[in-house]
Design brief:
Length: 269
């Protein structure tokens, strides 16, 4: 049998490692060795595409999303002349990001539109659109490898890319004042085999009785909750348990973002 190339073996070992420092261990072990309260190993690399005004490669376990920010000196027609800018997003997935090839033509449907609208709403929720002129900042989020949580990983990486686009505008003297009113991050949660779990893998997500995506700001306010009872209903107590987990995980992601971006002077205090 042909042995997998070394980089792939190393990435698989890293993704399977239970040694994530983001959330303390506790509770029964999951298929990848994590406790229900642990997120997958998180890494965000800045500036991976020098041609873009902002870029970030976010890795959460085996899910990897490349996020780039493009500054355009134009606006949608309905926003022109109103003295503000716009932040929007596009989302896509490489055909072999998944276990079986997903044709490019199949990615133009409702799910893709829903995800890119979610990313755009999440970023606009923490952005002052009046401070960077009549410009559009477009975030492209391209999934390189999918093991669930692609939309939440995209939000986490897109915020970093957006921040770095604002750094460019600031360096060019094109900001009236700091544009970010808050930080934003996202995470998935779900009920798997009766246990509330944080940051689901594909194996867990496909079996979850309940799954939910949560987007929150650094000040603890909700941007969006997307929760579904896949094979059962859930009550208020179970919802609270999932939100406690989500808040815990999002706080850790935001702390990571702040450590990564803290020297820019553009993050709110």
């Amino acid at each position: 049998m042909t042995r997998k190339p070394k980089p792939i073996r190393e990435r698989e070992r890293a993704a399977a490692s239970p040694a994530s420092p983001l959330v303390p261990a506790g509770g029964p072990s999951r298929p990848d060795g994590r406790s229900p309260r642990q997120v997958r190993p998180l890494k965000i690399e800045r500036g991976v595409l020098p041609a873009a005004e902002g870029s970030a490669l976010v890795t959460m376990g085996r899910t990897r999303v490349l996020c780039t920010a493009t500054i355009e000196d134009r606006l949608p027609g309905w926003l022109r002349g109103k003295g503000g800018g716009w932040v929007t997003a596009e989302y896509g997935m490489l055909p072999r990001a998944t276990r079986e090839r997903t044709p490019r033509a199949a990615q133009a449907g409702g799910r893709t539109h829903e995800i890119q609208r979610l990313i755009g709403r999440s970023l606009r929720a923490v952005t002052d659109l009046k401070v960077f002129g009549e410009r559009t900042i477009l975030l492209d989020c391209d999934v390189l490898e999918a093991d669930a949580g692609t939309r939440t990983a995209a939000i986490n990486g897109a915020f970093v890319a957006l921040h770095d686009a604002f750094v460019k505008l600031s360096n060019d003297g094109r900001l009236l004042r700091p544009p970010l009113r808050d930080t934003v991050a996202a995470i998935s949660v779900g009920v798997v085999a009766g246990v509330p779990c944080l940051d689901l893998t594909y194996e867990e997500d496909s079996k979850a009785a309940v799954d939910m995506n949560v987007v929150m700001t650094g000040s603890g306010r909700f941007v969006e909750l997307q929760g579904t009872g896949e094979s059962t209903t859930f009550d208020a107590g179970e919802l609270r348990a999932l939100l406690v987990l989500a808040r815990m995980g999002i706080r850790r992601v935001i702390a990571y973002q702040r450590r990564l971006l803290g020297d820019s002077g553009l993050l709110p205090g």
